[in-house]
Amino acid sequence: MTTFASETDTLTRDALTVLQPGFTGTTAPDWLLRRLGEGLASVGLFGRNIASPEQLAALTAQLRAERDDVLVAIDEEGGDVTRLEVGTGSSFPGNHALGAVDDVELTREVARELGRRLAACGVNFNWAPSADVNSNPGNPVIGVRSFGADPDLVARHTAAYVTGLQSAGVAACTKHFPGHGDTAVDSHHALPRIDVDPGVLGDRELAPFRAAVAAGTRAVMSAHILVPALDPDRPATLSRRILTDLLRGELGYDGLIVTDGMEMQAIAATYGIERGSVLAITAGADAICVGGGLADDETVRRLRDALVAAVRSGGLAEERLADAARRVRALARWTAGGAAEAGWDGSGDVGLTAARRAVRTTGAAGFTPLTEAPYVAAFTPVANIAVGDETPWGVAAELAGLLPGTEAGTFSGSGAGGSALTAAGDRRIVAVVRDEHRHPWMAAALGTLLTARPDTIVVEMGVPQAPARGALHIATHGAARVCGRAAAEVIAGR
């Protein structure tokens, strides 16, 4: 594609300003630094970019040496979705655990400490919190990323999270507008559809976003979902009715609107990323998130040139692009002036404290803590793309620290139960599941174990929707490292 304007052209700078690209590696590539000099104002970080807090701080300093007001964004929800601790698991439980505790001050404190850690590493924009109401238990992509199924609970914790995160000088990005909780399809793979009437949407999906707007969220992320009651033709990310008329008009929101990843199949497979990006800005989005899968200079150039071409052809109003770029720069100014509380350590135990408070047990009255090393059988589903499969989860590592000699194995599929029994031998079994209610093979495997070994301990690290089974059933409401630690403490009586 031909470049339509010089690097100093205002139109081209605005087109670059509205992009939030990613890259590969743990140092900034030359092409990215060059684009920052040309007008790029945001960079998105993923687990592949992070090796340690020290490395991350050096990377963000490298970016700021090129542009001191750059927005450095990350997908750090805590809990199951962590980039900061992608190799170890998060020090903070996720939203579902916080919702189970239902202490808004604790949620605020967790978000504040998470924000402190991000700010200490130079990250000033977090694609969190998820404000989705988990109204569909079969949802394959939200689940424990949601505070819960009750709109009022989700609303008050969303507001607390926004307040806590932004008190550390990190901009919150409340997602996924207008609500991704009632979907049975993962928008990474296809376009989900929510068929409910406007009244239900207003009372359920929109309640947490109203609370986030009232709390002063600096950004809102759109969802790649079709909501016919609001717009029968276009998904939310590309819908003027949803982004401009509803979010800006009815909800009175005046901050930054950023899209979910444009390379997700809900958009890429139906509109293509270039046309999708033009339609998103036209609809009212201010920033185009891309880089989870497409992370190179060619992608940035393609999207920049598509926006410039759309303005030149009359398909996108130049004033709309300029307004979007203005909002990006306004958020950059806010983060540059934010009073971030530096420091990695801070109140570092707040995450573990929250995880412990989120644990719910069934059968504890007759349970005797283990004193000998057990066998941990993890029944592992395929991870969704948002969570990823590079982050460890479970209780084995934490339990081994308390009961040395603990052994573990991972099982899946139709023969998982029998395989786990064989591997365990005569050891006491701790079975770890994740969303048992969504996986028939997992429920069957657990049934096989419990029939043969009724003294099996069951740890549910997803949404605890299935009936509690086992000699002891522990629901952690998430699979973060601290959730595994909290469960291990119950099992070992610590």
Describe the structure.
This protein is α/β, with parallel strands linked by helices. It is built from 18 helices and 14 strands. The protein has a six-stranded parallel sheet, sandwiched between helices. Strands 9-14-13-12-10-11 form a six-stranded mixed sheet, sandwiched between helices. Strand 4, helix 6 and strand 5 form a beta-alpha-beta unit. It is globular. The protein starts with 9 loop residues before the first helix and ends with a helix. The N terminus is likely disordered.
Brief descriptors of the model:
494 residues; alpha/beta; six-stranded parallel beta sheet; globular; disordered N terminus
Offer a quick outline of the entry.
This protein has 494 residues and is an alpha/beta fold. 41% of the residues lie in helices and 11% in strands.
End-to-end Cα distance: 63 Å
* Low-confidence region ranges: 1-7, 339-347
The total count of strands amounts to: 14
**Radius of gyration over all CA atoms, rounded:** 23 Å
Mean pLDDT over all positions: 92
Tell me what portion of residues adopts beta-strand conformation: 5-15%
Q: What about the largest sheet?
A: 6 strands, parallel
Quick one: overall form? globular
Structural class: alpha/beta
Count of helical segments? 18
What share of residues is helical? 40-55%
**Biggest sheet: strands side by side, in what order?**
2-3-4-5-6-7
Helices and strands, with pairings:
Blueprint: H1 10-17, E1 19-20, H2 30-38, E2 42-45, H3 53-66, E3 71-74, H4 95-101, H5 104-120, E4 125-126, H6 151-166, E5 171-177, H7 198-205, H8 207-215, E6 219-222, H9 240-250, E7 256-258, H10 265-268, H11 273-283, E8 288-289, H12 297-313, H13 318-337, H14 350-358, E9 360-362, E10 375-379, H15 396-402, E11 407-411, H16 416-424, E12 429-433, H17 440-452, E13 457-460, E14 472-475, H18 481-492
Parallel strand pairs: 1-8, 2-3, 3-4, 4-5, 5-6, 6-7, 10-11, 10-12, 12-13, 13-14
Antiparallel strand pairs: 9-14
